[in-house]
Each structure stands twice: as structure tokens, then as C-alpha cells.
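hey so i finally got around to running the thing on that chain from the lab meeting. sorry it took forever, my laptop kept dying and i had to restart like 3 times. anyway pasting the input first so we r on the same page abt which one it is
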Amino acid sequence: MQRLHGNNSFSSGGERALPFLLLAPTLLVLLALSIYPLVYAVRVSLQTGTGAGARWSLDNFTRLFSDGFFLSALLHTLVYAVVALSFEFLLGLLLAVLLNQEMRGRSVFRAALLVPMMLPSVVVGVVWRLALNPNFGAINGTLKSLGLNTESLTWTASPRLAFLSVIAVDVWQWMPFVFLILLAGLQAIPQEPYEAARIDGSSTWQTFRYITLPLLKPAILIVLLLRTMDLLRVFDQIFILTEGGPGFATETISLYIYRAAFRFGNFGYAAAMSFVLLIVTNAISLVYIRLLQKQETA
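ok and heres what got predicted. didnt touch it at all, straight out
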């Protein structure tokens, strides 16, 4: 009896430990790829100097508030995110509403719109850099064939045009993502409210304002959350198109972090800027999440 009881105890203990054993590989990967790099980044950001002269301090963080280049890169990033997100949302919503209607060739239009989103960002950057070339690019070539003067249209050499150009490229590539999410949200809306609105004699605008937009709000908040996080950390497209130029006109925080770390070797300062970007992104994301939670409980 004691022997049998001992085996049962061992079996019971093994069953309790089994879930932890199954989770162990995932936890090890999480520790290696997420937790350890985060802890190491905190350590690096709190160190100034190198070698034997390294010391612990908050100098890297306090330096940020007096660094004009960092503040300018932060402003560029926020303006870039707001403008690009506004155009992507408005165009994506407009196309989602239009292509949610019954029309000929609707499937073809939907498929064509998704092509830019499926291309790698590096490929998009290279293609658009060639297209925006003022001498032999496709855009100026097309405008010249229409009889327009393109001498002043140096798309990536003029500070204002360069900033607008990188925004336009991002809108071209990622507006389809907004369109796709909003179209899925529109198709998930039940038809009963629309039928009731038609019976009551509501206009198209009233139906859209009081039925479509409120019921589409969860999808809107989700797509705004995802695109905001992507826009705040944009790097590859701008790096390929303008490398932050001309001058400092299109420099974002991600580009500035890259230069500080890999061109000037100041990894502590780069880590400090990375944490500031993380805090800004999390703060904005929490606003979206709170709004989404209120919508779900309403």
C-alpha cells in the first residue's frame, strides 16, 4: 500500500509540473529575446563613459532635454505620424465605404489595393527613390510629357518636398492596411440597423454618422493603434529615400538613434533615446486602449 501511495504521489507531482515543463522552452526564448535585451538596454542607458572610466548616472537622459537635434527629430516624428495617419485613415475609410457597396469589379479593386502593403518596405523605398529622381524619375518624366515645368520639383532635395514625399510613400504603402481593417469592420456590422434607418427615412449621411461610425469605432481604434505604433518607429523607408535629409528635414527618432549608436558609437545615449520613444509610444497606445475598453463596456 505504501508503495502504491508513493507512486500516486509521484504521478500527482509530475502532472502539476507538466505545464511548467511545457512552458519552459517558450519562457527561455522570451528571456533570451526580450527580457535580457531590455535589462541590458537599461544598464547601458544608465552608463556614461567607456571602459574603466564608465560610471552610473542619469546624464544620458538629462542630456536629451538640451539636445536640439533630438527635440527636432521628436517633432519630425510626431508631425510625420499625425499627417500620415490622417491621410491613411481618411483615404482608407473612404475606399472601404465605397468598395463595401455592390459594384462591378469590386474584387479586382480590392486585390489591387492590397499590392503595396504586401511589398517589403525596402523594395518600396528603392522603387520610390528611383521614381522621385528629378532627372530620370517616372514622376517628373510624366509631368514633363504633360508640358509642365519640373525644374523646381526636386522631390528629395527640397526640405519641404522631401518631408511630403516620405509621407506620401508611407500613405501609398500602408493605406491599404487601414482599408482592409475598416472593410472587415464594415462587413461585420449587422444589416438590421440599416433596414430600420431606411424605414425611418434617414439620409445617407445620417446613416453613416449615427450607425456606421459608432459600430465601426472598435475597428477604427485598433487600426489607429497599430498604425501609430508603426509610424512612431519608422526607419527603413526614410533611410532609403532621404537618409534623414536634406540636412535634418526628415530625421526621425529612429534615424537619430541609429546614427548615435552605429555611426558615433554612443550606445548609452542611443539607449536613452530608445526608452523615450518607448514611453511616448506606450503613452499614446494606452489612450487608444482606454478608448477601446470604454467602447466595449458601453
